[in-house]
Every structure is written in structure tokens, then in C-alpha cells.
Specification:
By secondary structure, this protein is mostly helical. It contains six helices and no strands.
Length: 207
């Protein structure tokens, strides 16, 4: 009869891994917009970073709700929760960098563009890692390795950016501001590394 709920034993369980993949893809979209903003400072890209962060929050809540309902999951539930939490941090860090830079009227530059491009590459590999799980743990691990390699590019660019500030003739206040914003990019790289580490941990348990 219409409107009647199906018995519990006939109800399908939520696909928690697919819900996590949705969050990963939203994080990738957010970092794509972040890379665009980091290259040219367009407000449209900044708005997209904020919008995707809000959508990421919604995706995270959906996953947490599903984890409370599911009886079994293709990956450890704690791992799924932790990865979701760390993806949320990635989006938050990117949003905060944009917010701080815009509030201080700091224009993105070549250093920011290159760091953000590396972050986007890294999160793209993480998206591929979660597409591979749970069946192809070797591919997932390899993509996590590639993501880590991309974040090392961010570290190198960050050091170059700080070194350039030491030679800058800009007013001291602007130099301090730039250094703080560059540290935000470095924090973004560290947040991505945190996701990679949890992927490795999940792969070890699956193996």
C-alpha cells in the first residue's frame, strides 16, 4: 500500500563508500575553484570555493547519518568517518585562505597559483584512490603516493615563496601578511597529507 514503509529486512543499506566519494568529488571541485582563484583572484572562483565547502558539509552530514544506519561497510567505519573529517578540513583551510586574502586585499601571485595547482593534482589522485577502493587496494595506495608527491611540490613552492619574501622591498606589514597566507597554503598541503595517511591505513587493514 502506498505510504507504507518497507520492512527493515527489505530495506537497502546506504552506500557509505559512494557517499564518501561524493564528498571527495566536492572537495576536488572546491580545490579546482581554489586553483582558479589562486591564479587570478576572480570573485566567481572565490564564491565557488565557498559554495562547494557548504555542499561538502552537507555531504559529510549525509555520510555520518548513513554510518549510524549501516550494518556493514566496505571499509572500516572509523576510517570512513576519519577520511570524511579530514576532507572537511581540506575544504575549510582553502576557504579560510580565500577569506583572509580577500579581507586583506591580498592579490594571488605565481607562488599561490603553483601551490594551488599542486593541491588540485593531489586531491585528484585521492579521488582516484577512492574510486579504486575497496577492490583495488594497490591502485588506491599508488594514488595516495602520487598525492603525497604533489604535496611535496607544494612544500618546495612554499619555501621558495618565503625565500622571495626575504628579498622583497614591500612594506613589512604586507610581507608579514603574505607569509601568513602562504602558511595557509602549506597547511592545506598538510591537510591533504592527513587524508593520504588514512588511505594508507585503510589499505593496510584491507590487505
Amino acid at each position: 500500500m502506498k505510504g507504507m514503509r518497507r520492512p527493515w529486512f527489505l530495506q537497502s543499506e546506504p552506500d557509505v563508500l559512494e557517499l564518501l566519494r561524493v564528498q571527495v568529488r566536492l572537495t576536488e571541485s572546491s580545490l579546482r575553484a581554489f586553483a582558479e582563484w589562486s591564479a587570478d583572484g576572480r570573485e566567481e572562483a572565490a564564491a565557488a570555493v565557498r559554495a562547494n565547502e557548504h555542499e561538502g558539509d552537507t555531504a559529510r552530514r549525509a555520510l555520518v547519518k548513513a554510518l549510524r544506519e549501516v550494518l556493514s561497510a566496505p571499509l572500516d567505519q572509523e576510517d570512513l568517518y576519519t577520511v570524511s573529517d579530514r576532507l572537511d578540513l581540506v575544504q575549510n583551510v582553502a576557504k579560510n585562505v580565500v577569506r583572509q586574502a580577500q579581507a586583506a586585499r591580498w592579490p594571488p601571485d605565481g607562488h599561490s597559483a603553483r601551490m594551488a595547482a599542486s593541491a588540485l593534482t593531489a586531491i585528484g589522485h585521492l579521488a582516484s584512490a577512492f574510486d579504486a577502493l575497496p577492490k583495488d587496494t594497490a591502485a588506491a595506495s599508488n594514488h595516495a603516493d602520487f598525492a603525497i608527491k604533489a604535496t611535496r611540490g607544494m612544500e618546495k613552492e612554499y619555501r621558495g615563496a618565503i625565500a622571495a619574501l626575504a628579498e622583497s622591498s614591500e612594506p613589512a606589514g604586507r610581507i608579514v601578511l603574505a607569509a601568513e597566507i602562504y602558511r595557509g597554503y602549506d597547511s592545506l598541503g598538510n591537510a591533504i597529507v592527513g587524508v593520504c595517511h588514512r588511505v594508507w591505513f585503510s589499505v593496510l587493514k584491507e590487505a
